[in-house]
Amino acid sequence: MATLLWIIAVILVIAGIYMLLARRDILWGIVLIVVGLLVGPGGVSIFNV
Q1: 16 close to 32: Cβ distance less than 8 angstroms
Q2: What residues have CB less than 8 Å from 13, skipping those under 6 apart?
Q3: Average pLDDT of the chain?
Q4: Most exposed of 4, 18, 33, 45 (fewest Cβ within 10 Å)?
């Protein structure tokens, strides 16, 4: 399960960086990065609540 959370977190953070740099959409970029950090096993996982 931890591996799956890492993969999801990495995808979300990469998507957030893409939104910030390529599409210039600051709000969605920040939201995706924060959600990626929260979902990751090192963060406050939504599956452990």
Answers
A1: yes
A2: 32, 33, 36, 37
A3: 82
A4: 4
Is the pLDDT reported for residue 25 higher than 60?
yes
Q: What would the two tokens of residue 34 be?
A: 């924060």
Q: Secondary structure of the chain: what % helix, strand, coil (to 5)?
A: 70, 0, 30
- Provide the 10 A C-beta neighbour count for residue 40: 19
Contact 34, 9 (CB under 8 A): no
pLDDT band at 46 (very low <50, low <70, confident <90, very high): low
Q: Using CB atoms within 10 A of its CB, is residue 24 exposed (0-12), middle (13-18) or buried (19+)?
A: exposed
Going from the C-alpha of 18 to that of each of 6, 7, 15, 46, the distances in angstroms are 18, 16, 5, 23
